[in-house]
Specification:
Layout lengths: L11 H5 L14 H15 L2 H14 L7 H14 L3 H13 L23 H7 L8 E6 L2 E5 L5 E6 L2 E5 L7 H10 L5 E5 L5 H4 L2 H4 L4 E4 L1 H7 L3 E4 L2 E3 L10 E2 L4 E5 L2 E7 L8 E5 L4 E3 L18 H13 L6 E3 L6 E2 H23 L4 H7 L6 H11 L5
Parallel strand pairs: 4-5, 5-6, 6-9, 13-14
Antiparallel strand pairs: 1-2, 2-3, 3-4, 7-8, 10-11, 11-12, 12-13, 14-15
Helix pairs in contact: 2-3, 3-4, 4-5, 11-12, 12-14, 13-14
Length: 391
């Protein structure tokens, strides 16, 4: 099973749906995006039949292997369930699983009221049980650090005499497969667990693992764990239990020693209010969580000082060994040059949008003017961010 980049509600896919179709250019005029935006509008208006039809059209017209297919397929499934098209709903859930892009996203379905009418059926239970037979792929990176893929996000494991240091857990249903993978590489007990940020695909197994290990996270993650986890409008999971909460909250650049190696934990608030990056200083491996996602701006809309964030992030990158292996939350491993390019594009987009705002251009005019340089969702993202007072 391959882990891929996922954009959930509140991320760029959901944000793009709020951009009128007339503002989309180049590859972003793809038919699926227009259907998705129309489906979101129908959902918000309470027009369930139109919601189902548009989301089915969006999922059907998306390119194969598109990284956001499972999110759109999930929408198609829940929309079909809402209007009583049970067989269609189950087909979309099974398709999302079988396409193996972000299969475990379907694990939100038991918490989704849209599926209430079919949740007790044997067919629904059968689809939800598929994770029991899944496999996690294991890739040695450097030293004793391994990349585990298939749990819903990129998981790192450092294995040694002191036990296992685990970075992120993936979704909860992936835990048995994750344990099997750790056993295969000689991993013992999970002594330390670091959570990069409070999204379910990165922290789903903390309720079970937290009681038996020392859990480290940013205070922003701890705060979010205490609240219901909202996957999308109308779909939420209960707050994490006490056992899942961090034992140690990391508020600043912190170095600890595990299995004889210095490990840096650095707050990198960008994707959420609780981002934490982890750097193995001798193995030369860094896990950025979702603070680095290829193709996304390197911050979230609540960033109050985007320039300061990029300066700090770039300083962190510059402090690393030049041959450091970069692990983001979902994509394949890359290198520091890719991260620097992403920082550069973020800076260029911000400069362009600031100039446009200073000229008094609208978001529509800005998107049009920048269509040959930046994706429209980047322009819209930064226009909103930089239009805020103090930006």
């Amino acid at each position: 099973m391959r882990a891929r980049h996922m954009v959930v509600a509140g991320g760029l896919l959901g944000f793009l749906a709020s951009v009128p179709s007339g503002h989309l250019h180049g590859q972003d005029t793809e038919e699926w995006r227009l259907h998705f935006a129309a489906g979101e509008q129908a959902r918000q208006a309470g027009e369930s039949a139109a919601y189902a039809d548009q989301m089915a059209a969006a999922a059907s017209s998306m390119p194969a292997e598109h990284l956001n297919r499972p999110f759109v397929q999930y929408h198609a499934a829940r929309a079909a369930a809402l209007v009583g098209r049970s067989e269609e709903a189950l087909t979309w859930l099974r398709t999302a699983w079988d396409e193996d892009i972000e299969s475990l996203m379907i694990s939100f379905a038991p918490y989704d009221p849209a599926f209430e009418a079919i949740a007790g059926s044997a067919d629904f239970r059968s689809v939800m049980s598929l994770a029991g037979d899944m496999e996690i792929s294991v890739r040695p990176l450097s030293g004793a650090v391994y990349l585990l893929q298939g749990a819903g996000s990129n998981v790192l494991a450092a294995v040694g005499a002191e036990g296992v240091l685990l970075i992120d857990t993936g979704y909860a249903p992936a835990l048995p497969a994750l344990r099997r993978a750790l056993t295969a590489i000689g991993g013992g007990d999970i002594e330390l667990l670091i959570v990069t940020h409070p999204h379910e695909d990165h922290m789903g197994a903390t309720p079970e693992l937290g009681a038996a290990t020392t859990l480290l996270a940013h205070p922003g993650t701890a705060a979010q764990m205490r609240e219901p986890y909202v996957f999308m409008d109308g779909v939420s999971m209960p707050p994490k239990p006490a056992a899942a909460l961090p034992d140690v909250e990391i508020t600043r650049d912190t170095t600890m020693v595990f299995n004889g190696e210095d490990v840096r934990l650095v707050p990198t608030i960008a994707h959420t209010a609780g981002d934490l990056s982890v750097y193995f200083t001798e193995s030369h491996v860094v896990h950025f969580g979702d603070a680095y996602l290829a193709g996304n701006p390197m911050m979230y809309p609540g960033t109050v000082d985007p320039d300061g964030f990029l300066d700090r992030f770039e300083g962190f990158v510059d402090s690393m060994h030049p041959e450091t292996i970069v692990i983001g939350g979902h994509e394949e491993p890359t290198d520091l040059s890719a991260v620097r390019r992403q920082i550069g594009v973020s800076r260029e987009a911000m400069k362009f949008v600031r100039s446009s705002i200073a000229e008094g251009l609208t978001i529509e005019a800005t998107a049009e003017q920048g269509s040959d340089r930046f994706a429209p969702q980047w322009v819209a993202f930064f226009y909103q961010l930089l239009s805020q007072p103090g930006s």
